[in-house]
Write a structure and sequence with these properties.
By secondary structure, the protein is mostly helical. It is built from 7 helices and 3 strands. A hairpin with a 2-residue loop joins β2 and β3. It is elongated.
């Protein structure tokens, strides 16, 4: 009986080795195809006068997030700084988020930056909350 178990495990082991070899071979083929595609993309980039892009960074090191934007000298988000006191001055005495977003600077920053500004204004006692989504200047 032990001999049969050894043959069974040996058979499974041999099968697993064949599958792993096939996977390694497939990975090698795909890496070659990927390198060929990167070279072709770089050729197209250079033909249109663009910069190198992903091929220059190399595999496994993609640029992402705010740090990548700063590393290339670009700012993320809505561009220039917004003077939120100017935005507050531009809204009527009773207003909502939609009224704040009518200001071009606030609109460029987007709704996600309006809510922190509203919180700062409430903490600074410049506005008060008079209902759901409604505010009043003080």
């Amino acid at each position: 009986m032990p001999r049969g178990r050894q043959d069974l495990f040996g058979s499974v082991r041999r099968q697993a080795q064949r599958v792993l070899a096939a996977l390694a071979n497939e990975i090698r083929k795909r890496e070659i195809d990927l390198e060929r595609l990167r070279a072709q993309a770089n050729l197209w980039r250079s033909a249109i006068g663009g910069r190198g892009g992903a091929g220059r960074r190399g595999p496994g090191r993609p640029a992402r997030g705010a740090a990548a934007g700063r590393a290339r000298g670009r700012r993320r988000g809505g561009g220039r700084r917004v003077d939120w006191t100017e935005v507050l001055a531009s809204v009527p005495s009773k207003f909502g988020v939609a009224d704040v977003l009518k200001h071009p600077g606030a609109r460029a920053k987007g709704r996600a930056q309006v809510y922190p500004a509203l919180s700062r204004w409430i903490e600074g006692k410049k506005i008060k909350n008079v209902g759901k989504g409604k505010y009043q200047k003080l």
